[in-house]
Amino acid sequence: MRKIFLLFIFVSLTLITQAQVTDIATARTYATGTQVTISGVCQNGQELGNIRYINDGTGSMAVFGNAISSTVKGDVIQATGTLSDYFGLLELSNITTWQLLSSGNNPPSPIVSTPLQLNENLESHLVQINGAVFTNAGGIFAGNANYAITANGESGQVRIAANTNLVGTTIPTGAVSIVAICSQYQSIYQLLPRDTNDLFVSSAFYITNPPTQQNISSTGFDVNWETNLPGSTFIKYGITPNLELGILNGTGGSTSHSVSLSGASPSQVYYVQAYSVNGNDTASSALKIYMTSSLSSGVMKVYFNKTVDNNYAWSPANYAVQLPGKFQDTIAAYINRAQQSLDIAIYNFDSNNTGLIIQAINDAYARGVTVRIIYDGGNTNNAITQLNASIEKLPSPTTPPAYYGIMHNKFIVIDAHSSNADLAYVISGSTNFTDGQLNTDANNMIIIQDKSLAIGYTMEFEEMWGSNTAQPNAANSKFGPDKTDNTPHEYLINGSRVESYFSPSDNVNNQIINAVNSADNEMEFALLVFTRFDIAFAAEDRIANHNVTAYGMVEDTGSGGGYAYSILQTVMGNDLMLYNHNLQTGLLHHKYLIVDQGNPSSDPLVLTGSHNWSTTANQKNDENTLVVHNRDIANQYYQEFVKRFTANGGVLSVAENKNDFGYALYPNPATNHIYLQLQNTNEFRFRLFDMKGAMLMENIYNTIAPADISLEKLKSGCYVYQIQTTKGVKTGKLLINQK
Fold first, then answer.
1. What integer pLDDT is reported at residue 655 of this predicted model?
2. In order of start, what are the domains of the chain with their CATH numbers?
């Protein structure tokens, strides 16, 4: 086959007399800047953009230019251009002339390799990696994003291009073979699959649902997964990635698998690899990182630097706390609690009106606390120079600018490894340390007293810091795309599930989509930036197809004219608003999502942190995100949202004021009847409107029992109901499906 391929290339090249063609193997030895003519068969088409990786039988090379954008896989082309180095990738660019020699040819067969064998010799070749397992198995592929894999005990990176049909598909949950172009970006060799055909199951036995951590306690947890066929059940585990503690056997013999790890210590990190055996086949997961729960109090406190509306608290005991002008005092007060360690990762730290924070940090160092600070290297951050010169500080890298984003974190970790579990704190949210951010722009801050979470955040901090000592190690530090998914994601804090993710390693965009897709009744969001189409489409689906009520505010005016915003504006109308600076001061700097805060049985949650809903945040920036599954916390964020939304001129068509009255309306969707029962009142007026606003029904009821309301004369469709009592009015949507 190789002889036939070489003969074909030879015959094709003999037809061309206009230029001296250099074989690719020789061309790769020339210096950059050299003009050269090469020819070969395209191993990819438009799915990777305007780049073509061509092969002539002696070697492969990338050819880049708009001129060749119409070529497809199997075309043989000849191109003249200049050799250049694009972030480590040798390519032919600045194309002056090119010709299409023939079409419909077969590219060479892929070279079977392993992740560690990807090097300069295989650059631009078509390769095949067998037995590859994706770290983010079960998620959704995004475009222009990298995904970590393991194969044969080796780690590698898969790059999904924006134009490939892999975007939007599910990340394989079991071992697969990957056929891809071996490309290079900086020091990383990465795999570029071309389409869905380049990922295929390499074994008849594989994992269908990746391992999840369940039943977390201070002494252990369960690991659960599923396979396509029955098999045995094991995990390899350890307190290091070497899995040195051995193997645990679990409940096996079926497609559902569970292993219990017990006898552990509180706040202990474990590395786990799940695997099952069926005959001669073994299905293995990627390496997972789990942690036991702590013995901390688990107290969570939320603060807002703008006013809130406590009328929307579900209980007087759950009033949201507003601290206008007091964020600096609060941050300084918590820093003053530090006894052993203080880690701060902050995007923007200005010296104007932040003196209390500066003094608290200096005082902590003076009393013997180990202080470590990471800040964004591209910002002025003039407060850094006002800190004690002996405090260790590390700026994030800024070059090459096309590779790194910004160090956009805003978190503080206090006494993570203290023997007293009640001293450990994590402070997160959307707030930078500047006068405007602390006092003018709308921001939130969440403070969680939990040792396990503090250790998880410390692991992320030390990945950027490059060491676990007081001194940073720049040679080992990793920022942005260089980081890996190497922290626990699941925590049990005072009975509440809390998820923790960091960008760009953890594909936080998928976690936002998961949170959106969990909405059964309602969701609200307040965002600085919203440009991700996939999040917009997920929210659109919940609103249009699952009867979810949604309200949103976005600050960035660029987003207002953008596609993501317009997708939701179609289904949300006036319930989606740009932040009105004629009515409100400062920026809307939040990055939060609230889901089902009014329905305690539907897993109420809040997603918050530093992560804007943008591609840069997901793929380049250093960010932190928390997903808190807690009714009280969700309702507190809702109180802030209502105040911002109504102050912005928004109208809540579905009142959720728990101090008015509660009611139960069911079933919804309905057929011939609905039943309506009110709390704390017997008499009420019920009205029903069509979507054009025409009133179709009006009745007055006075009953303790549920009112039986007939819908027999109404057609299938969506309607708006209104319930009026002496305590207020509530409105909602009713879906009727007549049989």
1. 42
2. 2-102 (2.40.50.200), 111-201 (2.40.50), 207-291 (2.60.40.10), 300-498 (3.30.870.10), 502-647 (3.30.870.10), 663-736 (2.60.40.3080)
